[in-house]
Hints:
The protein is 35% helix and 26% strand. It has helices spanning 16-31, 46-57, 63-87, 97-100, 119-126, 153-164, 197-205, 213-222, 275-285, 314-328, 355-365, 389-399, and strands at 3-8, 35-40, 92-95, 102-104, 113-116, 130-134, 137-139, 145-147, 168-173, 194-196, 226-230, 238-241, 254-258, 261-270, 290-297, 302-310, 332-336, 339-345, 372-376, 379-385. Strand 1 (3-8), helix 1 and strand 2 (35-40) form a beta-alpha-beta unit.
Amino acid sequence: MALYVYKFGGTSVGSVERIKAVAEKIKKAHDQGHQLVVVVSAMSGETNRLTALAKEMQAQPSEREMDVLLSTGEQVTMSLLSMALHALGCDACSYTGSQVKILTDSSHTKARIQDIDDHKIRQDLEQGRVVVVAGFQGVDEKGNITTLGRGGSDTTAVALAAALKADECHIYTDVDGVYTTDPRIEPKARRLDKITFEEMLEMASLGSKVLQIRSVEFAGKYNVALRVLSSFKEGNGTLITYEESQMEKALISGIAFNRDEAKLTVTGVPDLPGVASKILGPIAEQNIEVDMIIQNIADDDTTDFTFTVHRNDYQRALEILKKVCQETGARQVTGADNIVKVSIVGVGMRSHAGIASTMFKTLADEGINIQMISTSEIKISVVVDEKYLELAVRSLHSVFGLDKKEQA
Length: 408
Ligand code: ADP
Ligand code: ASP
Ligand code: MG
């Protein structure tokens, strides 16, 4: 008998039929004698629908009220799933994040979990009940409802698995595991049997939305056995693990991409100490996160400065830089929001030279101009025009030998 935390994403609970199918799956595992805590997302499209409703009321709704609104999506699913389980004769009880008590900080719309009270859940499990918990939400110390950021139900599941010391945490979704890249972009993508926490963390941070970044951080920190599987078909899915030595010996494990970035450039900035902080200071003060940064020195004692931000912050960042431009005597500010970041990820990079040059040559052969480059020990990212996204991902997927074997 094992204790499992199962999480079902939006598509997996997207209709009455699907919720009933999920209930069947849970009942089967429960009948085998396992203890189950089930985390659910809102039905697919619901969080977007609620967000659009809020925008009808106010252009910039208060974040506190957004959390009150968005948390209702998960509350609908949790109760419907409990009812479906009851209908199958399976004892179940549902809780919101606040009822459990999943305590978070007060950063509305992107709260962090601080503590989980496992008391109620354990009592229910001991009574032989399936416990259903609303994902993506918690409560702060003043009793305000909070949410954990888009995709946050993954984090609820992993945090519960860590708190309950569950044997495994299963993330059931609409793909049957973690692939070498998003199968929606490259049909030749291959499912990985295993991937390291480190690589998964990079993939998630670089745009692979199959798992929320924080869920991977949590799983790595608390050593939660984490598996991504399909809710629609049987299979072992992908295990996220520490066991690097037993991994497939691939140089590159996966390719991630991010469509959410925009690029800003300040040219002709007088090249003096403190330039970077003069440009990025006002951006940080407005809570805008900066990702890649490049600074170049020209012959005429000026410097060009380029960085990327989230596309939602692009216009705001542009306005700020125009002011900075006047104050610093820089020549001009330009920007583009039609860019994407494409990254290759793999622990194999540590011990192999020449991977960057293969990447750059492949892109050059396809006529793709690289606008920015950034590297770390296990990843190389490039910024390119968004029209090249598919071409870049597919050509890199092929050159690094990631295509499905039968189609290679
Ligand atoms: P859920 O609603 O179950 O949380 P998500 O839509 O958040 O599901 O995540 C699953 C989706 O992630 C897949 O449908 C797939 O398009 C996308 N995805 C992106 N990168 C990858 C990858 N490397 N492997 C598998 N799926 C990926
Ligand atoms: N419902 C939330 C979202 O769509 C949380 C989740 O599904 O994980 O982002
Ligand atoms: Mg998700």
